[in-house]
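Recall that a protein's primary structure is simply its ordered list of amino acids. Everything else, from secondary elements to tertiary packing, is in principle encoded there. The following example makes that idea concrete.
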Amino acid sequence: MVREGQNSPVGDAWTFGERALVEEFIPGRELTVGVMGGLDGECRPLTVTEIRFEAQVYDYTAKYSAGHAVHTVPAQIPDHVAEEAKRLAVLAHRTLGCRGVSRSDFRWDDRKSGTDGLFFLEINNQPGMTPLSLVPEQAAAVGLSYGALVAWMVENAACQLD
């Protein structure tokens, strides 16, 4: 937060209010893991996908326009990094009380040893289901058709009234 009397660290370029969340840039590769988890507490990580894109950031065009990003499924990364990403995705899904399908995003700085360069970024509790979306692609990679994925999601849908 910029305090009164201080200048904004981004100057006049920031026009979206008085506050901003700023995170340190993590160099490396973009990874994502889908997780299926029902009300019974059983959680299944799908696989790890690496997303490569030409733009400086993974922006709207790269996400939603064909030909602007390449998904490598499964990601060509060491097994111990893939297993840790899947473990952390399941942990995030459970810890945050997600149900149905979620997708956790990571950055992996492969210059660091072991899994020291693996950083959890965020969880998406309503990941996309379009032809370019990651979760249906991951489901297919582990032998689950789009129709079977959608059927599982409908069968495991629930409403919590508190």
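The domain at 33-155 is CATH 3.30.470.20 (D-amino Acid Aminotransferase; Chain A, domain 1). Strands lie at 29-37, 43-53, 69-72, 100-108, 118-124.
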